Amino acid sequence: MKKALARFVLFLLPIIISAVALEVVLRQLPHDFKFKKAQMEQKYDEIETLVMGGSHTYYGVDPEQFDSETFNLSYVSQSLFFDYLLLEKYIDSLPQLKDVVLMIAHASMTYMFGEGEEAWRKFNYYRHYDITPPYNQWYHKYYLEILNLPVQRSIKKVYQYHLKNKSLISTTASGWCDEYHMENSLDLERTGEEEAHKHDSPSLDFSWNLEILRNIIEICAERGIRVHMINFPTYVSYRENLNPVKYNMIIDTCSWMAREFENVYHFKIDGDPRFTAEDFYDGDHLNDAGALKCSQLVNDYLESVKGDPIKPS
């Protein structure tokens, strides 16, 4: 029995050593979350406009095109829930903050933070921002790099960085990801239909995310900060494959909140004819040229409402 146990321990030992070594190496790798956090913290006293949301703003808003000092704190698949947690964490560290831009997309109002194939991204908020949502979906695996992603993907990251000298940082110092280039654009018809079916859940229950939006609006109103709910551009192949009832409900909800709350504004760019096929990387994301156009439009819009009074609640 003792010999069998000893053999078993000897069998496990190299696996354990390898796992520990991989965990140590992974934690030392550059990471977009770590990079953006550090960049934002260097600009605490300067940031006037904070852009939040998921991939539409992550790829579609370049802060360098803004007149105000702007930072893009968006990440792929970031929900309103994490928008709120990040804002709550940092709002009192940003004394110059005047405007918060929120991405309101088709999935925004029914998306739950722990749902779907992107749920693994929650680890990054714990690991790099020390944010732990108080819900039982927060399993122990989110505390370790090696348990968060398949081993093959983790080893590939190490290989690319240490052996291929490939950068693992995909964002600029102001938080925009400029990797979606026009020359590499995908099939807009196919990707638009695929992404629409992926995002178009049957639920019309907005209650969870409406409460989150109210929380965001409240903490901003208390500090005299404007909240801008913006529907960012998507290609026609994406919009045509969405539930039109739900789509219109989301637009109407944004308009209603802009009327209901004194510090809330609504700006709809989705469907704007100024955006053509040449502006899109895939069915629901802008390419770098489209991001430039979008950023300039959002900047012009923000500048146009700067003179509006803000009345803290």
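The record above closes out task 2.4. Task 2.5 opens with a second protein, given below.
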Amino acid sequence: MPSLQIFFNVFFQRDLQQLKGLTAWAAISLCGVIMLVCFAVKRRFNNARRLRVGTTLIERKSKEAIRIESDNKTILRCNARLEDELQYRIQKNLEMILMLLNHESASLEHAMARDAFLQSQTRIKAIYLVHRQIFFSQGEEYVEMSAYVRQMVTSLKKYFMTPETVDFKLDLQIISLRLCIAEPLGLFMNEVITNCLRHAFIKRATGDIHISMKQASDRHITLEIKDNGVQYKGTDFWHKNDQTLGIGLIHGLAGQLDAKLVFARDHGLSVCLDFMLGPASN
């Protein structure tokens, strides 16, 4: 019996030790699983928190971008209104100047004084027509030159009272130019056409004035104004050093446009202007 008891004691102690070992490994494994689960949960929580933070930042940036875009649109609308107001005031001021010149010229008796007032009126009207077209272009800072030339011709025929005696023949492409180009070009055309009306048909009852304006594909513009009026005498007519205001303006405006200016006599006078448009000119 003692020996049997000893056997059972030894056997059960060994199983108990094995059971304790298994329990220890199970506890360690369970702790490992719990740690992995905790790590996974924490990682997912951190990812969710970072996602919330990122979403919040995106929402803030999106709201900021929307606010900036709204502010920019407001600024653009304000600038457009200011531009319209500026063009409107320019128009009204030029109209007032034209009215005053017309009123003063009506009371003048000296022919040279009346002629000087008339030339001033045509020059101001040329500028006025540019700003008038810009004002009605709904915010665009461009002048459509074919329509502008037709308006100028109508205005000059009225000023010089030549509705039937002078026939204008127009060959114009549809060309839109910025104000910085259209204004000096309009003044140039006004000076040349005015000189044709004043001097070309003195000894003739009728005459023709041809106006051609075309643009090549390489941004090259050619303007030609010619008449079939009387031949000019002398070799230095239209010379750059001529002291008259009109000739000085013609050469000065051609220089402002960085253009090539050519005069020719062929059954009258031909004035040709060639210039290139810059990258932002049309």
